[in-house]
Write a structure and sequence with these properties.
By secondary structure, the chain is mostly helical. The protein contains four helices and no strands.
């Protein structure tokens, strides 16, 4: 599964779905360029929340 938060609104919805409501307001992740510039830190935040889901369950969550 490939995940892309292509704009700020989609990234915010992704964070909400993963129960990371403060991530979109973190200065390191507030904009797409800042997320790209801090990719390692962003992945460290996202990966643990994603890994707890089986693939089918994660896809269903993203569709919601």
């Amino acid at each position: 599964v490939m995940i892309s938060g292509g704009n700020d609104a989609i990234f915010s919805r992704l964070c909400t779905a993963l129960d990371l409501p403060d991530l979109p307001t973190d200065p390191r992740f507030r904009t797409n360029p800042s997320r790209v510039g801090n990719l390692d830190a962003l992945l460290a935040e996202l990966e643990p929340r994603i890994r707890v889901h089986e693939t089918d369950a994660f896809v269903a969550l993203m569709r919601e």
